[in-house]
């Protein structure tokens, strides 16, 4: 006789067949969204640094010293974001 015929075949329950794949799919979607947001956030910070440096030089050329102050504050904030989030993730 075949031993497989004596084995009891266990049916999957509702959680294993329906709910667990839905949870895994939702987690996969959130993982993809997180990776996209991480990628976009990194490049937004890098382009923000370049933009604020350019705006400082433009405002100096146009003699708008309030714009220089705003560009300097924006540049400092972007550099802080860069060193807190992007450099930290490269070390780990």
Assembly annotation: single chain
The count of β-strands is 0
Largest sheet: none
Mean pLDDT: 86
Number of helices: 3
Number of domains: 1
Q: Helical amount among residues, as a percent range?
A: over 70%
- The unreliable regions are none
The gyration radius over C-alpha positions equals: 27 Å
Topology order in helix (H) and strand (E) letters: HHH
Q: Label the structural class.
A: mainly alpha
Strand content: under 5%
Gap from first CA to last CA: 58 Å
Estimate the global geometry from the Cα principal axes.
Answer: rod-shaped
Protein name: Group-specific protein
Keywords: Membrane, Transmembrane, Transmembrane helix
Transmembrane segments: 18-36, 43-62, 68-86
How would you describe this structure to a colleague?
It is a single chain. With 92 residues, this protein is mainly α. The chain has one domain (14-91). Helices cover 86% and strands 0% of the residues. The chain contains three helices and no strands. It has helices at 3-6, 14-61, 65-91. α2 (14-61) runs antiparallel to α3 (65-91). The longest helix is centred in the middle third of the chain and has 48 residues, at 14-61. The protein starts with a helix and ends with a helix. The mean pLDDT is 86. This is Group-specific protein. It comes from Bacillus wiedmannii. Keywords: Membrane, Transmembrane, Transmembrane helix.
Q: Mind sketching the topology for me?
A:
Layout: H1 3-6, H2 14-61, H3 65-91
Helix pairs in contact: 2-3
């Amino acid at each position: 006789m075949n031993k497989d015929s004596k084995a009891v075949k266990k049916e999957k329950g509702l959680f294993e067949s329906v709910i667990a794949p839905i949870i895994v799919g939702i987690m996969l979607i959130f993982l993809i969204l997180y990776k996209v947001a991480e990628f976009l956030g990194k490049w937004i910070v890098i382009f923000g640094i370049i933009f604020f440096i350019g705006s400082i030089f433009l405002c100096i050329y146009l003699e708008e010293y309030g714009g220089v102050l705003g560009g300097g504050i924006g540049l400092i904030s972007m550099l802080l974001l860069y060193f807190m989030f992007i450099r930290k993730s490269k070390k780990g």
